[in-house]
């Protein structure tokens, strides 16, 4: 069907290698994009940051069909997609 996987994280770009290593160790071998926060975005709250990034994806032609996240900031805001899937995370909460 031509699905492309895009990972959108609130982690900083300084952690790029760690995030890629974690994804590969979890079984992901390829993806379209891994979007991480730039230093200039460090003060942007998660919900606003992720909404802005999803808006940029839609603007360049992506359609967000599924959106999976463990934080409400992953699933709220704008351009959340056709379906959202909330995963439990008892370890931490981002407001």
Major sheet: order of its strands?
1-2
Beta-strand share of residues: 15-25%
Mean pLDDT: 95
- Indicate how many domains the architecture comprises: 1
What order do the SSEs take from the amino end to the carboxyl end, as H and E?
EHEHEHE
Largest sheet: 2 strands, parallel
Q: Share of helix among residues?
A: 25-40%
Q: Which structural class best describes the helix and strand composition?
A: alpha/beta
Please provide a written account of the structure.
- InterPro entries: Acid_phosphat_B-like, HAD_sf.
- Pfam families: Acid_phosphat_B.
- The structure is a single chain.
- With 95 residues, the chain is α/β, with parallel strands linked by helices.
- The chain has one domain.
- The chain has 3 helices and 4 strands; from the N terminus they run βαβαβαβ.
- The strands form 2 sheets. It has a two-stranded parallel sheet with strand order 1-2. Strands 3-4 form a two-stranded parallel sheet.
- The termini are far apart.
- The relative contact order is 0.17.
């Amino acid at each position: 069907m031509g699905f492309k996987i895009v990972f959108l994280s609130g982690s900083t770009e300084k952690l790029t290698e760690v995030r890629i290593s974690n994804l590969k160790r979890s079984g992901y071998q390829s993806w379209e994009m891994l979007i991480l926060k730039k230093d200039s975005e460090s003060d942007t709250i998660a919900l606003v940051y992720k909404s802005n990034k999803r808006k940029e994806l839609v603007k360049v032609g992506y359609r967000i069909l599924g959106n999976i996240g463990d934080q409400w900031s992953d699933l709220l805001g704008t351009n959340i997609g056709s379906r959202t899937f909330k995963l439990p995370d008892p370890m931490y909460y981002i407001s």
